[in-house]
Write a structure and sequence with these properties.
single chain; mainly alpha; two-stranded antiparallel sheet; elongated; binds zinc ion
Length: 466
């Protein structure tokens, strides 16, 4: 093994690539090979003794039980931290000395100082290798932005901005390929959702409107509905949970992993947060453990929190089922209490992906049915809302019946569309129309009936516009 490594570094020849051109080869006497899988490991071997030259036996070092905590290393990235400016500067001095002895160079231009504080802006200065280090408001570590106030709101805003690019590319793919809705959702989850949920186990306890906006934009696009469409209807029609619910599950999964490895360092950090959570200390909503405690309590699973040392009672599937059930209850209450969805909740009872979204192959027919179902249409009952016309005056102007033009009237009553109706719907539904028949028609699950219903809506809407 050592022989192999030695021969790898016997002579290291490198060149510089710029655009498509390469420089002549030259030999390199220092450092590890760029991009080689063994490089970060070799570097860690080399700096293994760094910790011994640092004096952590001073005031202002973060201490967890007996562990003194001041250095995190990942590949060639290092983080030093202290509770006081003096402690941090002392660690920086030790680091400088270590690098001098071992012949390492620090890129001081890339080394930054982040002071975590709320409200106040204290002035300090820190130096390394005779250079003053820049003090920044945020720092990206392992792909996640940390901000000086300790809040994750701006992290989430950055994530949602970042994901818009991926969403845009996804929409280009949608325009070029004819994909089924299930495939579209899968692509969204792996290409955009993975960005939106990146490291969410850490920051997921913050509500994030900007992240949900990206998700809803996707849902409106796959359903082809107006911006004003009710959010609960978007989730219900596709059977998709809001990102917040997805994050709750990610956090619970991480929490379970944590409590099942009580020997880990992270568990020790968690224990500190849990101690405060049990005293109801929430750090203004930023205590991670407090959030988990509340989540379990509001899910009626407080006993799991109280007995978490007994990891046998912790079952992810059970917690997940409860969280999803509770969401479905609020979803159901929401569509029941919404004035705008009074027709929708006549035929929508289950939170799942609607069959018609997969079984109507022609886009224009499927879109016509979606818009009709989600009140994303121009019938008088809907347009009257925007112009503030009293409900009873939202009359159908396409016939002489002087009744409200709502979904029921359009589908099985209005005489204007009788020829189209005779072609696509069974006479049973419109000969003696009732609200019950309307509901039956809208909940019919036969592929043939669904396709005919969509065609009726499409052609009648065309007729209505002409
Ligand atoms: Zn009419």
């Amino acid at each position: 093994m050592i022989k192999a490594l030695k021969s790898m570094y016997n002579t290291v020849r490198q060149c510089v690539r710029y655009k498509n051109e390469r420089s002549p080869l030259f030999t390199s006497e220092a450092g590890v090979k760029q991009g080689d899988p063994s490089s970060s490991l070799l570097f860690l071997f080399f700096v293994n003794d760094m910790i011994n030259t640092m004096n952590a036996d001073i005031d202002g070092i973060f201490t967890l039980e007996e562990i003194r905590f001041f250095l995190i290393m990942f590949a060639d990235d290092s983080i030093l931290f202290g509770n006081t400016p003096q402690a941090l500067q002392s660690l920086l001095n030790d680091l400088e000395q270590y690098c001098q002895i071992s012949g390492l160079k620090i890129n001081t231009g890339k080394s930054k100082i982040l002071i975590f504080e709320k409200g106040r802006h204290t002035r300090h200065s820190f130096s390394l290798c005779n250079k003053e280090l820049e003090i920044v408001d945020s720092f990206k570590y392992l792909g996640t932005y940390f901000f000086k106030n300790g809040s994750w709101n701006r992290t989430q805003k950055l994530i949602s901005q970042h994901s818009k690019f991926a969403l845009h590319n996804l929409f280009i793919v949608f325009n070029q390929l004819d994909l089924d809705i299930k495939e579209k959702c899968k692509l969204f989850d792996s290409l955009v959702g993975s960005i939106l949920n990146y490291n969410a186990a850490i920051w997921g306890n913050h509500d994030s409107k900007s992240i949900e906006i990206v998700h809803c934009k996707f849902l409106r696009k796959v359903l082809s509905v107006k911006k004003s469409t009710n959010l609960s209807a978007l989730y219900g029609e596709t059977g998709r949970y809001p990102m917040k619910i997805q994050r709750q599950l990610i956090m619970i999964k991480y929490w379970i992993k944590l409590v099942k490895t009580p020997d880990s360092l992270t568990y020790n950090v968690y224990k500190m947060l849990k101690h405060d959570a049990d005293l109801n200390i929430s750090y203004s909503g930023m205590n991670w453990a407090f959030y988990i405690k509340n989540l379990l309590t509001s899910s009626g699973l407080r006993y799991i929190w109280d007995n978490q040392w007994n990891t046998e009672i912790i079952n992810y599937e059970q917690i997940k089922l409860r969280i999803l059930d509770i969401y479905k209850q609020t979803w159901y209450a929401d569509i029941n209490n919404s004035n705008r969805l009074e027709t929708y909740n006549l035929y929508k009872h289950d939170f799942n992906l609607e069959k018609y979204l997969s079984c109507i192959k022609e886009n224009k027919f499927r879109i016509a049915l979606t818009r009709f179902r989600l009140s994303s249409h121009d019938l008088a009952i809907e347009t009257g809302r925007y112009t503030n016309i009293d409900r009873k005056f939202r009359i159908c102007t396409h016939c002489n019946m002087r009744v409200i033009e709502n979904e029921y009237h359009f589908l099985i009553v209005c005489p204007k569309y009788i020829t189209i109706r005779q072609k696509y719907l069974k006479p049973y539904f419109f000969r003696w129309p009732t609200l019950n028949k309307f509901t039956n028609l809208m909940t019919n699950t036969s592929t043939n009936a669904i396709n005919n219903l969509a065609k009726y809506i499409y052609f009648s809407m065309q007729e209505r516009r002409s």
